[in-house]
Design goal:
Elements: E1 2-10, H1 14-21, H2 27-30, E2 38-39, E3 50-54, E4 59-68, E5 72-79, E6 87-95, E7 98-107, H3 113-141
Antiparallel strand pairs: 1-7, 2-3, 3-4, 4-5, 5-6, 6-7
């Protein structure tokens, strides 16, 4: 299906942005219709941690594959099977006290879902852009509480 990337410049330090994006409960605040994610592994959130969430039709399972505090977070989907290998990659860069947050969604579809990829591409691209805009709006408004 492809690779989708968007960036925003957030008027907050990287530490604030990082704290927000590594909290899996914030996904529903930034992505309408997203399942509520929770950490399913024991121990602190970091590389190797697993997450799970269920919406009306699917159970999502992901594992954190890169965890570089205040710089980069990558999660790889393990389930559903048709998305196995898809990654969601966040990169934070500090620029004059602000943070550029870049999200790259690398989709790998398996099985028959490969045929449906072109139908979902516009929504995926829109979701990435909307998610980052919502992170920016939430953090800059101070409504993270």
């Amino acid at each position: 299906m492809g690779r989708f990337q968007a960036s925003v410049l957030i008027d907050c330090p990287a530490e604030t942005v990082w704290k927000f994006i590594v909290d899996p409960t914030n996904l529903t605040r930034t992505t309408p219709g997203a399942p509520q994610l929770r950490q399913t592994s024991t121990g602190p959130f970091g590389q190797g941690a697993t997450l799970s969430g269920k919406d009306r039709m699917l159970t999502l399972v992901a594992r954190v594959t890169v965890f570089n505090p205040n710089r980069r977070l990558v999660a790889e989907f393990l389930d559903p099977g048709f998305m196995r290998g898809t990654t969601d990659d966040y990169i934070l860069e500090t620029l004059d006290g602000k943070t550029r947050l870049t999200e790259t969604w690398n989709t790998k579809l398996n099985g028959i879902s490969k045929l449906l990829g072109p139908f979902f591409a516009p929504r995926t691209k829109r979701d990435v852009t909307t998610r980052l805009d919502n992170v920016k709006r939430t953090l800059e408004s101070g409504t993270t509480g």
